[in-house]
Amino acid sequence: MRLTALVTAAVLALTPVASFASDVTPLVTAEWLKAHAGDPNVVILDIRDKVAETDLGGLPYIANAVVAPYGSAGWRTEVDGVPGQIPPVEQIAGLIGGLGIDGDDHVVIVPWGTDSSEFGGATRVYWTFKYLGHDEVSILDGGWRQYDAQGGERVAEPAAAEPVTFPYEVQPALRATTADVEAALASGRALIDGRPAEQYLGQAKSPVVRIEGTIPGAQNLPHSKFYSADFASFAQPETVLALAQSVGLDADEANIVFCNTGHWASIAWFALHEIGGNKNTAMYDGSMAEWAADPARPIQ
Hints:
Elements: H1 3-14, E1 27-28, H2 30-36, E2 42-46, E3 61-62, E4 65-67, E5 77-79, E6 82-85, H3 89-98, E7 106-110, H4 116-131, E8 137-140, H5 143-149, E9 154-155, E10 175-176, H6 178-187, E11 190-193, H7 197-200, E12 219-220, E13 227-228, E14 233-234, H8 237-246, E15 255-258, H9 264-275, E16 281-284, H10 287-291
Parallel strand pairs: 1-8, 2-4, 2-7, 7-8, 10-16, 11-12, 11-15, 15-16
Antiparallel strand pairs: 3-9, 5-6, 13-14
Helix pairs in contact: 2-5, 4-9
């Protein structure tokens, strides 16, 4: 398919219309949320950290939002010594059901929207819903920053959740394992490193990663390229597709994205898979923390 056709299709896919499943889009605007916040089966999921520490005039929440902070609610956990992993599916489904979210709800995730790294909390939670087979999920583009700038209703307390059972059907194709990465090295499947350039180049590393470097043959698409901190907005489809092409990744080429713990990688996954429309993109949530833990695995 030609690039122009892909861009047109992606733009149409991103146009928010209504809150029914057939119209759910990866991103919704603040204006959309203001118009649909009270709709049946629309659940506003506030994942912002440190809300209590911020001076918001005593009105720190979006009306009708339920709260589950990204850093403390249990969206990620340590598994077999590797930090930042998705918890066992029964556990994460219990967290979601405890927020009153069921299989018919359109979930709209709200981060602060300050920068790409913070916005990555929203893309990681979004990936979690998709991994569990729940497609009715969106992210508020620009997060709280855009909502507040647009004069959205603010309230003093979050909504009280009534726990329900959240159904799930795991989508294994969205999550790459270490074995999948090893297979990718053998087959030539593209590997995309979503970390900052200095980590990709081995000039710096995360404290949770044993050694500097990247997986051999990986190309670098830093997460910051997909989000504008100045304008509090995610990259448009044409930008995502151009960035993919800049590292030699075809529009629908199979690839695995990674970072240190699957946080920054979720930004690249969201960009490529959801905004760019490449459904052959998987995320390695173990990422470099897991890969580099075994000295026998190659590091470039």
